[in-house]
Specification:
- This protein has two domains: about 90 residues, Ubiquitin-like (UB roll); about 325 residues, Glutamine synthetase/guanido kinase, catalytic domain (Creatine Kinase, Chain A, domain 2).
- By secondary structure, the protein is an alpha+beta fold.
- It is built from 14 helices and 16 strands.
- The strands form two sheets. Strands 8, 9, 10, 11, 12, 13, 14, 15 and 16 form a nine-stranded mixed β-sheet that branches. Strands 1, 2, 3, 4, 5, 6 and 7 form a seven-stranded mixed β-sheet that branches.
- The longest helix has 21 residues.
- Helices cover about 35% and strands about 20% of the residues.
Length: about 450
Amino acid sequence: MTTDLASFAADRGIKYFMVSYTDLFGGQRAKLVPAQAIAAMQQDGAGFAGFATHLDLTPAHPDMLAVPDPSSVIQLPWKPEVAWVASNCVMEGEDVAQAPRNVLRRLIAEAAADGMHVKTGIEAEFFLLSPAGDQISDPFDTASKPCYDQQAVMRRYDVVREICDYMLDLGWNPYQNDHEDANGQFEMNWEYDDALATADKHSFFKFMARSVAEKHGFRATFMPKPIPGLTGNGCHAHISVWDAPGKEAKVNVFAAPKGEGPTAELGLSEQGRHFLGGIMKHASALAAITNPTVNSYKRINAPRTMSGATWAPNSVTWTGNNRTHMVRVPGPGRFELRLPDGAANPYLLQAVIIAAGLSGVRSKADPGKRHDIDMYAEGHTVTDAPKLPQNMLDALREYDKDTSLRRMMGDAFSTSYIKMKLQEWHDYTSHFTQWEKENTLDI
């Protein structure tokens, strides 16, 4: 683990550090700091005006300092003279409570105090578009069922290979890359890790994918539903809990001993069942974090796509190895949450998973009935499961009234998040669209 950034720079020939933090809306903010100044920055932090980014601050607030976490430092593989380092936001000596990485760090510590160490892996989906973002980058990528299309993935081999090579060099242990279910869409997978490490990698992956795409003359987007009629960008999370963090972990406490509890046949322990119960209990409120944009609800409430399926949930249901539900248990000792989309804030995504799961374990929450039907064909027959929110406003209202989840995420964070996302919603609803003219001009 790196502890001294100045030595890291000297050893690797680094000239600049990107001292980076992620704001409430998932925006990545950074200052470019010369290596000769990084020792002071590691001690005191780089100064930012928080109001200038998506944080609930005013111009009158004092400087917000982004203090680098040296354990997160990554030398840019495509520009080795620069290193990226995730930072923790501090103001007047105190952690900024609403800052997403701080929210996650606090919840990790709270779960650890209960003997729970959450590990996650995420499936980051993205589109490669033209620089203007108005069309798919590959004009030959037109199949009605393009998933796993080997010709299409090889036409974008240079981009996919470069990103994967970098992950290999960084020691992330990537293990597969593919063309996804939509034309122009790709997915790249790397090994699961502790929640904070996964969040840092997720944040850096978005930066890296965009940078490499731009280098090749394309535009990478994680927008939930960038193209009508095509499958959207999900960000599925695979979740397990262990007896210790990092390489100290020996026992997966989600793995069920034979015959233990009603989820044992799926390989999920009682603690895993209760953690899942928390996810199910808080699912509608969870969507405000896992599906944080207006566009998100074009994905989870979408009609059938050109490929034949959206691959996104619209109801709060769980199952075994069945991809048509919000949660599936594909194998022993873990489950997959299929609700999040590409717009999810890397840090808040991990934080809300821990918050909901920890709440479920503490209250011994029951996940409810397991459904094994095809939800896309037979979902209308399910009457005992709530539908997911129809839009961002509904999701924010669900989050606002879920007092236990709000408290778990932190009152300061929750108040600021709801306030700023409501401002975003009002900005959206005040925007006049062509649809309105076409449908009401002559009414």
